[in-house]
Amino acid sequence: MNTPKVGIIMGSDSDLDIMSQAATVLDEFGVAYEVRIISAHRTPDVMDAYAAEAKDRGLQLIIAGAGGSAHLPGMTASHTILPVIAVPIKRENHGHEAFWSNIKMPPGIALATMPENGAKNAALLAVEILALQDNQLAKKYTAFRQKQHDTVLKVDEEVSKDWQSYLNRSA
Ligand code: RP5
Q1: Global pTM?
Q2: Is 43 helix (H, G, I), strand (E, B) or coil?
Q3: Which of 9, 14, 94 to mutate to test the pocket of ligand 1 (most atoms within 8 A of CB)?
Q4: Is 1 a member of any domain?
């Protein structure tokens, strides 16, 4: 098993359905990661130790997801010099409190806040950062971007020819 480069952490197992999307993306790119449930308010001691030891254990960055007042991403960032990417968790019965909590990180501690439930983009940003020093990963990521590009061209070709047929076929 490769040493994890990315730590995917979240405040509760109730976040796992969303945060697992980051793990799936990292799997696609062959990036080693670990997944942990670490709560800023229920296990603050574990959060402190995890963040403080992360770099020495070989992690290169952390993706942190939390809902509610969502302290986990910002507090984790304050205990490590690794880049921390925040995923504000938003459920239907939530407001936008987690997003605002994360995006409003005061100056001095950087936190890269994604859109609400943006676990996939969190993983893509992680890949971009890791690819700066990993040519193989950079090639895979470039191929991924090219594939997305080509998919849009193909869809555009079909829609521009006959959008009604396209719409009916997709329905
Ligand atoms: C946050 O509170 C967690 O990140 C989760 O999004 C939310 C609710 O947690 P549970 O009550 O479902 O454990 O700390």
Answers
A1: 0.95
A2: coil
A3: 14
A4: no
133, 148, 163 — which closes off a domain? 133
31 located within any domain: yes
Residues in contact with ligand 1 by the CB-under-6-Å rule are 10-12, 14-15, 39, 66-68, 89
Give the tens place of pLDDT for each residue, 84-128: 999 999 999 999 999 999 999 999 999 999 999 999 999 999 999
Could you tell me the two tokens for 160?
């521009």
Asked whether the beta carbons of 157 and 116 are under 8 A apart, the reply is no
State the distance from the centre of ligand 1 to the C-alpha of 127, rounded, in angstroms: 26
Q: Which residues contact 102 (CB under 8 A, 6 or more apart)?
A: 70, 73, 74, 86, 88, 111, 113
- Structural domain of 78: 6-133
